[in-house]
Give the backbone structure.
Amino acid sequence: IFGSIRNEWKDNKLNKLIGFDIVKKQIKSIIASDVVEKERESKGQGVSVMFHEYDFGGNPGSAKTTVAKTF
């Protein structure tokens, strides 16, 4: 599972953007958490319910929409 996620991430448009290191790190963390939760669910273990709300803020032209659409 993790190998396929890593391959998808390498091809992801967001990963190809220059900079955004903090954003990329946070998204990788969210993806990893989601993978773990799905794995736990498939094994019949307890699953935590999480709701995510994101605020894409920044100056005009700072790729907020690109990041939001890609994510």
Notes: The longest helix spans residues 21-42. The CA atoms of residues 56 and 64 lie 6 Å apart. The mean pLDDT is 77.
